């Protein structure tokens, strides 16, 4: 450790952490969250150096593992010094500093002879780490031997890079190691903690890494000049003609099946004879266990104009008019119950059920013994891997190439290599039928665009033949002689050569191609997200296309991090990040509706909370999830920095073929104006707050209290008044023809009757909402205070209550914004999770609060869930109820696992059938 010394200058936030290091490092070690490009690796090495003990560094991939060793040589050792022999990459022969992957640790603990299997799963079907097939005794023997070696080397520091990547078997190996080393100091570094996981998984993560000691956001880094201005764009497309035909054929088969099902008297009689329908009171216990299936039967029978027995409605606590329309989702629930879950209850109709099951199998609507009518996996796969995305990539490459010219440094990340699709010769122009690295490369090669194309994966490297001289210079600078590089001309095109480095030198291949890319020897580089999507350091990237299917919270943020780093050679850099999304044509506005029930794409009632008023399919849904992972610049005025899909401002978009083209043209116009992008970031970053930072907020259109919320209903009154005005104006035109008092009376009578007919429904709906829905800002703070104090009582929130405050504000659209001030990151996250469960309850809470009240002479019942984290123990739920009664209103705490409790829970769920006002919440991070 004495040989190590940092050769550079610390950034402000790095220096602050180092200055406070003694205070930050406690019994739980050090846990730092910092965005990609913030220098976490160098900070981790310095913390390791200051601790001064033998260290084991664990990384999630080979690329990041090699980066740790490279950073150590470049930043902590004198120039031109080779890697010291006291640095090891083999946990079986550890050194003072040992740098390995999580999989390598698991493999060694399992007794595998090779710890470097396919660490970067770049081919479809690659399974990564597998459980050892050796006997338990040999596995235990291998584990003890490695732990003995680490103890002999006196390893007392564990550096965990992006520990959220751990699979279960890797997690077990790391936990065993930590326990065996007897409380080593853990230094955990991550760009994106897994905030979106369930509480149990978070507890496991925090037990390993400790509580978060410091956090640095992307906007903060852009403000300090450590990340460049950047923007996310989406290129929307429709499936190819062949893909659309496949979708249409599948949907037509589904529609024909449902039409036949609805006409089947035998199937209808089978439902009518089910004991839950004929004897609901006697079967309440079973109904409570699966209220969703019971509801699906009632919905089906209601759609068949069957007069439902009063006893079935009483169990749900609803009227027949409140039963929702029959949809694909409800038919799916019904069929799964009839064909699989409760097959034995339909013994008399076995022949009918078998016939329906066979038909579903014929149309491929059964997956793993489950009926799938809504977005089955076959549809999801078709959308996510649509060939139209290849056309989109060519369009983006053409646009960015024309805009950036020689300055273009584009990276395209995909999931799989598809090496088997490489052409065998110049005349091999086989149709491209799958997404992947090689198909993307080949599509761009055939496009005729003036690009310097390259491929960088773990098993395939292709570069332009004209860039060989630059690559030789780079290799020579790294001490790699030409005799160690294997070049081979591509069989399909003499303009490309493959590159290989044998043996230990293979670790340098990523660095070499990255350097070639930075120098312009490659302007468009195609690779896998497994190899390049995380930890890969290429500051020259100014355009990124995410052709990966990944929608996960963590990996999406990691991939974006490749483009948003600053480039010392290009201080004015601004980066474009392109996302690809294929819209399900079935979901478009102008589609032909199915021949039953309600259209799945019917426009919803005006709702200022939701900027997307139409379901566009599973691929767009995955894209929306991806956008929750990071904060970015909004398209609105004035520009804001916030998370979520709504910042793209697509609320007025027309979702038809022409509208999609308009959206793409808008994205393209914005993408080529990088100078405006920098100015908008500058405007958004300079907040009015004394200390601007990222605030995480819960947005909601509902809060539990019986007060009047004029903002959320005034548009209904305004609508009614406006309509009335139009009617009056029309009749005023006829006043000129009135020639007697009798004629005037007749005109006025017609006017008022027309007003009553056309305006009263809207006014009544507005009034009903006033009675049914509470004031947003009037009670949100009390609800938030209830959640806060309950979590603090449980020890989930440890910050003193006196330093915390719940803030709630209401905007002009009737949306409430609530956040917790003064708390740590994870405390804010747990608070918002709990608050969200109160406002939009889960389907099966352990405890609920029931409040019965009378407004004028109208009786109402309100149900609210006790957050799952609080509801684990009865004493915590009772404390929450006590606080609720104090701050919100008198309510009864109901345990839903009892018979009576489940009956109340069933009625609670059923109330959502006829909800006049949909409860919605959303979590948004915003720079303020």
From TrEMBL:
Stretches with biased composition (Low complexity): 126-137
Gene Ontology terms for molecular function: helicase activity
Family annotation (InterPro entries): Helicase/UvrB_N (IPR006935), Helicase_ATP-bd (IPR014001), Helicase_Restrict-Modif_Enz (IPR050742), P-loop_NTPase (IPR027417)
Region called Disordered, residue ranges: 111-143
Record field: compositional bias (Acidic residues): 116-125
This protein's record includes keyword Signal: no
Domain of life the protein comes from: Bacteria
Gene3D superfamilies: P-loop containing nucleotide triphosphate hydrolases
Coiled coil: none
Protein name per its UniProtKB record: DEAD/DEAH box helicase family protein
PANTHER family the UniProt entry points to: ATP-DEPENDENT HELICASE IRC3-RELATED (PTHR47396:SF1), TYPE I RESTRICTION ENZYME ECOKI R PROTEIN (PTHR47396)
Residues covered by the Helicase ATP-binding domain: 21-211
């Amino acid at each position: 450790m004495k040989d190590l010394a940092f050769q550079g200058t610390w950034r402000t936030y790095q220096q602050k952490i180092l200055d406070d290091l003694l205070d930050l490092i406690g019994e739980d070690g050090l846990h730092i969250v910092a965005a990609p490009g913030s220098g976490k690796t160098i900070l981790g090495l310095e913390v390791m150096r200051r601790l001064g003990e033998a260290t084991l560094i664990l990384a999630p991939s080979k690329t990041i593992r090699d980066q740790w060793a490279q950073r150590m040589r470049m930043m902590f050792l004198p120039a031109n010094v080779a890697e010291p022999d006291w640095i090891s990459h083999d946990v079986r022969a550890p050194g003072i500093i040992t740098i390995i992957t999580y999989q390598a640790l698991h493999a060694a603990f399992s007794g595998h002879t090779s710890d470097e299997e396919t660490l970067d799963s770049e081919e479809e079907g690659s399974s990564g780490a597998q459980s050892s097939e050796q006997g338990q005794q040999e596995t235990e023997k291998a584990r003890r031997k490695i732990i003995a070696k680490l103890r002999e080397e006196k390893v007392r520091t564990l550096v965990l890079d992006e520990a959220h990547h751990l699979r279960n078997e890797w997690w077990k190996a790391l936990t065993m190691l930590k326990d065996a080393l007897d409380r080593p100091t853990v230094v955990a570094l991550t760009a994106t903690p897994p905030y979106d996981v369930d509480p149990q998984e978070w507890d496991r993560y925090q037990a390993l890494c400790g509580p978060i000691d410091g956090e640095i956001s992307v906007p903060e880094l852009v403000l300090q000049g450590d990340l460049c201005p950047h923007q996310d764009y989406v290129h929307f497309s429709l499936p190819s003609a062949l893909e659309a035909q496949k979708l249409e054929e599948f949907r037509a088969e589904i529609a024909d099946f449902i039409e036949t099902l609805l006409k089947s008297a035998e199937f209808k009689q089978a439902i009518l004879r089910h004991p839950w329908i004929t004897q609901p009171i006697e079967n309440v216990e079973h109904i409570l266990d699966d209220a969703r299936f019971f509801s699906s039967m009632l919905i089906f029978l209601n759609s068949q104009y069957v007069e439902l027995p009063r006893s079935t409605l009483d169990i749900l606590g609803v009227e027949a008019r409140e039963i929702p329309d029959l949809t694909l989702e409800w038919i799916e629930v019904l069929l799964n119950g009839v064909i699989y879950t409760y097959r034995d209850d339909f013994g008399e109709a076995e022949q009918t059920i078998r016939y329906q099951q066979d038909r579903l199998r014929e149309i491929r609507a059964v997956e793993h013994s489950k009926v799938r009518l809504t977005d089955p996996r076959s549809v999801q796969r078709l959308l996510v891997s649509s060939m139209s995305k290849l056309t989109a990539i060519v369009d983006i490459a053409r646009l960015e190439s024309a805009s950036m010219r020689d300055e273009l440094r584009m990276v395209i990340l995909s999931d799989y290599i598809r090496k088997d699709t490489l052409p065998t010769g110049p005349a091999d122009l086989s149709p491209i039928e799958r997404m992947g690295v090689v198909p993307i490369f080949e599509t761009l090669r055939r496009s005729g665009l003036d690009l310097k194309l390259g491929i960088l994966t773990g098993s395939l490297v292709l570069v332009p033949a004209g860039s060989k001289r630059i690559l030789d210079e780079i290799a020579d600078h790294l001490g790699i002689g030409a005799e160690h590089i294997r070049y081979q001309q591509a069989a399909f095109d003499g303009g490309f050569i493959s590159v290989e480095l044998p043996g230990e030198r293979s670790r340098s291949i990523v660095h070499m191609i990255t350097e070639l890319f930075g120098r312009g020897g490659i302007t468009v580089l195609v690779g896998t997200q497994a190899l390049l999507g995380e930890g890969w350091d290429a500051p020259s990237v100014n355009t990124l296309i995410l052709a990966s299917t990944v929608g996960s919270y963590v990996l999406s943020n990691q991939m974006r991090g490749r483009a948003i780093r600053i480039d010392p050679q290009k201080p004015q850099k601004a980066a474009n990040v392109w996302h690809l999304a294929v819209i399900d044509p079935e979901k478009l506005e102008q589609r032909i509706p199915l021949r039953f029930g309600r259209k799945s794409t019917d426009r919803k009632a005006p709702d200022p909370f939701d900027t997307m008023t139409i379901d566009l399919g599973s691929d767009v849904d995955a894209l929306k999830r991806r956008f929750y992972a990071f904060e970015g610049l909004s398209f609105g005025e004035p520009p804001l920095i916030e998370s979520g899909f709504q910042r793209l401002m697509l609320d007025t978009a027309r979702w038809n073929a022409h509208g999609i083209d308009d959206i793409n043209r808008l994205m393209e116009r914005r993408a080529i104006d990088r100078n405006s992008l920098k100015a908008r970031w500058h405007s958004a970053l300079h907040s009015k707050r004394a200390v601007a930072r990222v605030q995480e907020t819960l947005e909601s259109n509902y809060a539990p209290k019986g007060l009047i919320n004029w903002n959320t209903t005034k548009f209904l009154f305004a609508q009614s008044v406006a309509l009335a005005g139009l009617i009056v104006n029309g009749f005023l035109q006829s006043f000129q023809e009135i020639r007697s008092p009798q004629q005037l009376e007749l005109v006025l009578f017609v006017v008022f009757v027309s007003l009553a007919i056309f305006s009263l429904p809207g006014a009544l709906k507005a009034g009903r909402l006033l009675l049914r829905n509470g004031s947003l800002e009037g009670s949100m703070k009390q609800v938030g205070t209830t959640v806060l104090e309950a979590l603090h009582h449980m020890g989930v929130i440890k910050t003193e209550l006196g330093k915390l405050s719940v803030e709630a504000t209401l905007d002009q659209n009737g949306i409430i914004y609530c956040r917790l001030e003064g708390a740590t990151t994870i405390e804010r996250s747990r608070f918002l999770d709990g608050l969200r469960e109160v406002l939009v309850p889960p389907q099966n809470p352990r405890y609920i609060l029931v409040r019965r009240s009378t407004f004028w002479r109208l009786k109402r019942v309100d149900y609210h869930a006790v957050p799952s984290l609080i509801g684990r123990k009865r004493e915590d739920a009772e404390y929450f109820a006590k606080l609720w009664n104090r701050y919100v209103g008198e309510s009864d705490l109901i345990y839903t696992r009892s018979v009576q409790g489940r009956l109340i829970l069933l009625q609670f769920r059923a109330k959502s059938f006829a909800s006049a006002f949909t409860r919605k919440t959303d979590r948004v991070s915003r720079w303020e």
